[in-house]
Write a structure and sequence with these properties.
globular; about 0% strand; about 70% helix; mainly alpha; about 70 residues
């Protein structure tokens, strides 16, 4: 959850890479979506969040970010 408070795409990417061995596949996709979202690639972010939900349909943070980004 602490990683999710970071709003700097480069720093988040670096932190996620350092901790990737501790993250599950759904969370890796989630943070990729967050980085894309910060880079204003909304379509890419939505696709990443969709991938998260394919792996974990109850991933609350991905559900929230998806709802926030879909009009």
């Amino acid at each position: 959850r602490a990683l999710d408070t970071n709003n700097d795409a480069a720093q988040l990417t670096s932190e996620v890479q350092k901790l990737s061995h501790l993250l599950g596949e759904a969370d890796k996709h989630y943070f990729r979506g967050r980085v894309l979202e910060m880079q204003h690639d909304i379509e890419g972010a939505i696709a990443a969040f969709d991938e998260v939900l394919e792996l974990d349909e109850n991933h609350k943070r991905a559900l929230f970010r998806l709802a926030l980004n879909v009009d």
